């Protein structure tokens, strides 16, 4: 009789402990086994299977892991005084530092912060380790960036012997123990709300948004919670008197589409928690690029060209290492008043050569060299494919073959003696281009 009266050990209202993974027998405030207050409870806790995982202050967390002396100090990962914040640790965020904030503003808000230049090679390596742990949970992993991804855990309960919610909690403990960083996770029935949930209780968070509560929860949120609603679009919506998602829920789909086109259709569905997108594990990289922010604004071609060449070589090295090539070259410039200019050109065939990337970017750059001062320069390639058909012989430009062979020889020497073993005349002795950043895979 006592056994019949006992609460089931997997009652979602009782939940489980996120620190020792013990299922709770009652609605206690602390874990019945280890005393931890980190309990996960939700009426739909064991029915949901779509997750979004995001590492907490990823770059800064890695730097703190590798240098324990930084543990209790505010850390900003980013460029020099003229750069921007890539990541700020949570101590720095308390002072008002945010990602993408100009560095001078970040240091005004938190002058005692330790500023560390990005080490993309290290971050990519740790990101791959996190990704490998994700793929051990399910084959349905869709990366969004170096440190976040969607996971579909449906059908894995028999494999792991526990519900997806507990699998996520165990994953977070594994990352913390094996890699020395922390993650936050969101669990829901669709991708939109899983991502929203993962931002709730950072760091070390695990949040759940169920289907039954979705409409009520969304109604109270600002329109900026919806993907694609940035500052400019939010201002347009506010001009129309729309500030909350609840207001969108009361509008007809046709009215929204007449006002805002395709975005109106998105507003209609997402405001109601309707998102039928699936997790696609084969989402390949869309572009490979490298950029740098200058300490002082630059307008002279004589100063911009060496930087462009160095960045082109960085992008080329990444393409060659990955066995891929790109057909569209993209030039990125940011003016001194933070206005962004992007220009692109599609090539006749894919390339992975630094010379072709540079020469194409140079032609695009010349068209923008009108005396404008730039604070940022970037170059990249998109329309990626494997490199089997990259850079075929050019019957018109007979010198291209010689330049390709010379580049191959340079690559061989650099691989044997280091990156500075051979330099072109474009970059040799040019201080500004000495240390361009590692390319970013978008």
Automatic annotation (TrEMBL):
Quote the subunit structure annotation.
Monomer.
Give the lineage.
Bacteria, Pseudomonadati, Pseudomonadota, Alphaproteobacteria, Hyphomicrobiales
This protein's cofactor list reads: Mg(2+)
Positions that bind Mg(2+): 54, 147
Q: Which GO terms describe its molecular function?
A: damaged DNA binding; DNA-directed DNA polymerase activity; magnesium ion binding
Q: Recite the UniProt keywords alphabetically.
A: Cytoplasm, DNA damage, DNA repair, DNA replication, DNA-binding, DNA-directed DNA polymerase, Magnesium, Metal-binding, Mutator protein, Nucleotidyltransferase, Transferase
User: What is the recorded name of this protein?
Assistant: DNA polymerase IV
Q: Name one Pfam family in it.
A: IMS_C
**Superkingdom of source:** Bacteria
Reactions catalysed according to its record: DNA(n) + a 2'-deoxyribonucleoside 5'-triphosphate = DNA(n+1) + diphosphate
Which PROSITE patterns does the record associate with it? Answer: UMUC
Q: Name one GO biological process term.
A: DNA repair
| Residues with site note (Substrate discrimination) | 59
Localization (cell):
Cytoplasm
Q: Which organism is it from?
A: Mesorhizobium amorphae CCNWGS0123
Q: Which residues belong to any copy of the UmuC domain?
A: 50-230
| Gene3D superfamilies, per the entry | 3.30.70.270, 3.40.1170.60, 5' to 3' exonuclease, C-terminal subdomain, DNA polymerase, Y-family, little finger domain
| UniProt key word Metal-binding | yes
Role played: Poorly processive, error-prone DNA polymerase involved in untargeted mutagenesis. Copies undamaged DNA at stalled replication forks, which arise in vivo from mismatched or misaligned primer ends. These misaligned primers can be extended by PolIV. Exhibits no 3'-5' exonuclease (proofreading) activity. May be involved in translesional synthesis, in conjunction with the beta clamp from PolIII.
């Amino acid at each position: 009789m006592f056994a019949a009266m006992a609460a089931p050990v997997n009652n979602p209202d009782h939940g489980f402990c996120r620190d020792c993974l013990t299922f709770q027998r009652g609605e206690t405030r602390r874990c019945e086994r280890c005393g931890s207050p980190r309990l996960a409870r939700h009426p739909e806790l064991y029915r949901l299977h779509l997750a979004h995982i995001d590492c907490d202050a990823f770059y800064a967390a890695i730097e703190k892991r590798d240098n324990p002396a930084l543990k209790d100090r505010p850390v900003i990962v980013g460029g020099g005084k003229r750069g921007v914040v890539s990541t700020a640790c949570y101590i720095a965020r308390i002072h008002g530092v945010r990602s993408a904030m100009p560095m001078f503003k970040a240091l005004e808000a938190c002058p005692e912060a330790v500023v560390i230049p990005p080490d993309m090679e290290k971050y990519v390596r740790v990101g791959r380790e996190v990704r490998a742990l994700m793929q051990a949970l399910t084959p349905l992993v869709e990366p969004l960036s170096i440190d976040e991804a969607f996971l579909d855990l449906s059908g894995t309960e028999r494999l792991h012997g526990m519900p997806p919610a507990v699998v996520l909690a165990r994953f977070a403990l594994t990352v913390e123990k094996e890699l020395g960083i922390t993650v936050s996770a969101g669990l829901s029935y669709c991708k939109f709300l899983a991502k929203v949930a993962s931002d709730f209780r950072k760091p070390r968070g695990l949040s759940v948004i169920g289907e039954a509560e979705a409409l009520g929860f969304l109604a109270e949120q600002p329109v900026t919670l919806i993907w694609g609603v940035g500052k400019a679009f939010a201002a347009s919506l506010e001009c129309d008197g729309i500030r909350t998602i609840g207001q969108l829920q009361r509008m007809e789909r046709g009215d929204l589409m007449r006002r805002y086109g395709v975005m109106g259709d998105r507003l209609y569905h997402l405001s109601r928690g309707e998102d039928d997108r699936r997790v696609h594990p084969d989402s390949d990289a869309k572009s490979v690029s490298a950029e740098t922010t200058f300490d002082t604004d630059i307008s002279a071609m004589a100063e911009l060209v060496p930087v462009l060449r160095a960045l082109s070589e960085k992008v080329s090295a990444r393409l060659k290492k990955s066995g891929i090539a790109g057909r569209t070259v993209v030039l990125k410039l940011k003016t001194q008043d933070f206005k962004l200019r992007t220009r692109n050109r599609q090539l006749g065939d894919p390339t992975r050569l630094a010379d072709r990337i540079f020469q194409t970017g140079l032609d695009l750059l010349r068209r923008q060299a009108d005396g404008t001062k730039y604070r940022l320069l970037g170059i990249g390639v998109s329309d990626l494919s494997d490199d089997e058909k990259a850079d075929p012989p050019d019957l018109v430009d007979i010198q291209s073959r010689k330049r390709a062979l010379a580049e191959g020889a340079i690559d061989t020497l650099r691989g044997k003696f280091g990156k500075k073993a051979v330099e072109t005349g474009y970059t040799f002795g040019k201080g500004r281009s000495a240390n361009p950043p590692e390319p970013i895979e978008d």
